[in-house]
Amino acid sequence: MYNCAIILAAGEGKRMKSATPKVLHKVCGKEMVNIVIDVVKKAQIDDINLVVGTGLEKVKKATELQNIQYSIQEKQLGTGHAVICAKNFLKGKKGTVAIFTGDAPLIKDDTIKKLINFHNEGGYSAVILTSLVDNPYGYGRIIREENGNVSKIVEHKDCTEEELKVNEINSSMYCFDIESLVDSLDKIHNNNAQGEYYLTDVIEILKKSGKKIGALPIPFEETLGVNSREQLAEAARIMRKRVNKNHMENGVTLIDPCTTYIDLNVKIGNDTIIYPQNVIQGSTEIGKNCILYPGSRIEDSIIKEGTIVQSSVILESKIGENTTVGPFAYIRPESVIGNSVRIGDFVEVKKSTIADKTKVSHLTYIGDAEVGSGCNFGCGTVVVNYDGKKKNKTIIGDNSFIGCNTNLVSPVKVNDNTYIAAGSTITDEVPEGSLAIARARQVNKEGWIYKKGLNK
Ligand code: UD1
Ligand code: CA
């Protein structure tokens, strides 16, 4: 049986009070609409149509790598109208269309597969995914006949007193027989409390024409729709719990999963231990046997096995094996740090490579530099990489000892096996095997204090 999907993502999301289209708000680091598209694909539906309208260009841009088709809904006249806008996509197709919304990111791929099978094997014209909830406020209610069959969906604002008491809600996710759906879309109207063309009205239309309607109840934690910031936080909480559970199942220790924030695409090796208050974002990959002590933010970075990080920020960089970072280090984009390196407290590294076994233990800035292996940076070293107009490069060879409080005025080269005396301001190349001293000689003026009368 042919299956395709339509995802509704044209709505304004008024209740978010945001300049960003609702479906582009992120849950665990990924736009809700991309989460839904990914899950639909994972359920083996490849022919996907996204209905876009509000913030059309932004939504298209955010989904451009997804290889999907678009329908445009110029005015947001309701969910039924949104599907009417996708009629061209459905034209001439026979089979099943599943419908989802870009603001309900918690649906699981297994549930989608179950929905499709239930629909296709049961000979239904429509199947609705529903949930039983304690507080159905705001949702469309599933109205059943005495024999339990579904007769219609009534939106909250259109409910009678009796209907408001129903606690089975419409998730806004369905399967339809394509031809039955297309026929009944012609018959929906907008004389309801919101003056909108509701997709939900299709159910009653199909029922009245004698078609078979099914409902498949699933846990509310898969159907939660995001209409407000509060619901966005709730959806993120549920997603985070799933992500963290998955890592723990794969052998990662999370000391406190409730305060560990890991984005959807992050990969972590087994036997890594993560303490509270770590935020691990984007496409970060952490190797095995690492320890992340409390308080770091790591984004789009690769950290190899056995490395220890504490209270630091690491962005778009690579860190090798058995290296230590922090506390309070700042690794800025395009940095590549080797194996068994030490990056200590208050060290900032920007767009630089640092080779294996080099130690930069404290209070140092390294920018636009290429640093060899086995070097030792004294406290307070500054790579002076900016001349006021442009950034310049510093090259430091292997086994260099950079004395405390050295300035390396770029562009400059320090060759292998060199020493730089503490307090030097290096402006010229330091030859291999030499000691460089670049500071004024000390002068002692004996008795000066007494001559000046400054003694106490
Ligand atoms: C909808 C359902 C309701 C269900 C609830 C579940 C209808 C009429 N109501 O209500 O029964 O319980 O979802 O979360 O379908 N959209 C468009 N174009 C439009 C309007 C909406 O593309 O003109 C999209 C939105 O971007 C959103 C989705 O459809 O992704 C749902 O729209 P929303 O306005 O949030 O519907 P609800 O009021 O939540
Ligand atoms: Ca909604």
What would you say this structure looks like, in words?
Residues 251-456 are annotated as: N-acetyltransferase. It holds the Pfam family GMPPB_C. It comes from Clostridium algifaecis. UDP-N-acetyl-alpha-D-glucosamine binds at residues 8-11, 22, 73, 78-79, 140, 155, 170, 227, 332, 350, 365, 376. Residues 5-213 form the Nucleotidyl transferase domain. The protein is α/β, with parallel strands linked by helices and 456 residues long. It folds into 2 domains: 3-223, Alpha-Beta Complex (Spore Coat Polysaccharide Biosynthesis Protein SpsA, Chain A), CATH 3.90.550; 240-436, 3 Solenoid (UDP N-Acetylglucosamine Acyltransferase, domain 1). It is built from 10 helices and 39 strands. The protein has a 16-stranded parallel sheet that branches. Strands 14-17-20-23-26-28-30-33-36 form a 9-stranded parallel sheet, with no helix packed on it. The chain has a 7-stranded mixed sheet with strand order 5-4-1-6-10-7-11. α2 links the parallel β4 and β5 (69-72). The radius of gyration is 31 Å and the shape is elongated. The model has no long low-confidence stretch (mean pLDDT 97). The structure holds uridine-diphosphate-N-acetylglucosamine (UD1) and calcium ion (CA).
